[in-house]
Design goal:
The complex is a heterodimer of chains A (87) and B (346).
Chain A: H1 3-17, H2 43-57, H3 64-70, H4 74-84
Helix pairs in contact in A: 1-4
Chain B: E1 3-11, E2 32-33, H1 45-48, H2 53-69, E3 73-77, H3 83-95, H4 103-109, H5 113-121, E4 127-131, H6 137-151, E5 157-163, H7 167-175, E6 199-200, E7 202-209, E8 217-226, H8 230-244, E9 252-255, H9 264-273, E10 278-281, H10 283-286, H11 292-301, E11 311-313, E12 321-328, E13 332-340
Parallel strand pairs in B: 2-6, 3-4, 3-5, 9-10, 9-12
Antiparallel strand pairs in B: 1-7, 1-8, 5-7, 8-13, 10-11, 12-13
Helix pairs in contact in B: 2-5, 3-4, 8-9
The chains are: A mainly alpha (87), B alpha/beta (346).
């Protein structure tokens, strides 16, 4: 899958998993921080995103420190998915 | 001495929020009366997006009352809490073989999620409890409020009853014979002579204390009984009335009659013991759910006339003393005795 296509798919999945009913994929910028500013996600959302990566891409993040580097923005998530996905 | 109700709010399948209009009866969809939810301005979007219907309705209904009153406790009655999220969570356990599960459904599915969320959102660290006695959940919450205020006079409590329709749970209850076959209009609910009823949902919230001044109603007593014996129910009610009103008449009976032909005899028996009372029904407006008597209390507390479509037996007297009777799934019966008051002269 092309990276751009993967980004769009990931944005759709984030909207679905986190029930971001008023957000469209085009509202999420690739380099916009997911937490704090930008999309404004919080710690419960981070667990939802870890579950998303596990279910949709077969990626299991065990180390929280590792998670902090991956769940920065769409770009960092997609880069990690491309490298580590098992499905 | 009872407790006094000062403020009320209700989210229900009827227009009970904003510009209240309960004279117009909103129709059920496929034997379900879904709540007409308002725009929840007071709930931050980041929190709102995680809430299931029960939590959303419960928080949305109570929050405006809490902002004005800063209650010293939160007491909620709910039969099922966030049942839809609960079943989603259980399904995840099955689908993902007890593997990694999303926390959102779990957090929202516990019965005390509404009371907890209200406490968190308003930084209210006081008494916080949820009663889950199925069809007597709200009656028990009310009883708790009465006991708590007796021990702690001079305080305010938030009291609330709520439940949601869960489509999963609807199917389970339907297969168990609790809902009607075929499509039944809620306006015709009492004319049906078949088993089952229609499902409903909603939330009703109250600020209560033991201050008579400017109260809109006084809850004088609440009693519950588990029985499937009509004679036991009648003698229980006779004793209750003898103790509470000793010969005076009840102006209005607010009856939880629900169109289920199998259990209509309970309601007829209670009506027969109160031959001089006006009889008002509410299940065609709100549907059947465990904490439905909370919405009956909201209806009873409102000033002015009862909606024309709710009146089963008309009487010339005005509503002063009111008895709410609700029966749930044959066994659980609750009575709430209250007196409607004029806030200007109380």
């Amino acid at each position: 899958m092309e990276k751009e296509q993967l980004k769009l798919q990931l944005k759709q999945q984030i909207i679905q998993f986190l029930n971001l009913t008023n957000v469209k994929p085009e509202d999420i910028k690739d380099d916009e921080p997911l937490f704090g500013e930008g999309l404004g996600l919080d710690s419960i959302d981070s667990i939802e995103l870890i579950v998303l990566l596990s279910r949709e891409y077969g990626i299991n993040i065990q180390d929280p420190k590792e998670g902090r580097k991956i769940l920065v923005d769409i770009n960092t998530m997609v880069d990690y998915i491309v490298e580590h996905r098992t499905k | 001495m009872g407790i006094f109700i000062h403020k009320i709010n209700c989210i229900s399948p009827q227009q009970t929020w904003g510009d209240i209009d309960i004279q117009t009866l909103r129709a059920a969809e496929e034997n379900r009366l879904y709540a007409r939810e308002p725009v929840y301005d007071g709930i931050p979007p980041g929190i709102l997006r995680r809430m299931g219907r029960a939590v959303r309705m419960g928080v949305g209904c109570a929050l405006p009352l809490m902002k004005d009153s800063s209650p010293d406790g939160i007491i909620i009655g709910t039969s099922n809490g966030g049942m839809e999220d609960c079943i989603k969570f259980l399904n995840q356990i099955m689908d993902y073989e007890e593997g990694m599960l999303t926390p959102g459904n779990f957090v929202q599915s516990t019965a005390n999620a509404t009371a907890a969320q209200l406490g968190l959102m308003t930084a209210n660290r006081n008494y916080n409890i949820t009663h889950v006695h199925r069809g007597l959940a709200f009656e028990n919450a009310l009883l708790d409020a009465m006991m708590w205020l007796k021990e702690n006079p001079g305080h305010n409590l938030l009291l609330e009853g709520l439940d949601e329709i869960s489509n999963y749970n609807y199917n389970i209850d339907y297969l168990d014979g609790w809902y009607k076959d075929g499509n039944v209009q809620n306006k015709d609910l009492y004319a049906t002579e078949t088993k089952g009823t229609i499902a409903g949902e909603g939330a009703a919230a109250f600020i209560v204390n033991n201050n008579r001044e400017q109260a809109i109603a006084e809850v004088k007593s609440v009693r519950t009984i588990h029985t499937n014996n009509e004679a036991d129910l009648k003698s229980f009610l006779r004793r209750f009335l003898d103790e509470q009103i000793s010969g005076e008449i009840i102006d209005v009976l607010v009856s939880g009659e629900n169109g289920d032909s199998r259990y209509a005899h309970y309601y007829k028996a209670v009506e027969a013991l109160l031959p001089d009372s006006m009889v008002v029904r509410y299940k065609h407006m709100f549907g059947e759910f465990g904490a439905g008597s909370a919405l009956a209390l909201w209806l009873a507390c409102r000033q002015g006339a009862f909606p024309h479509h709710s009146i089963k037996r008309a009487m010339p007297h005005t509503a002063g003393s009111i008895l709410i009777y609700n029966s749930y799934k044959e066994w659980q019966h609750g009575f709430i005795l209250l007196k409607r008051m004029d806030p200007e002269n109380s």
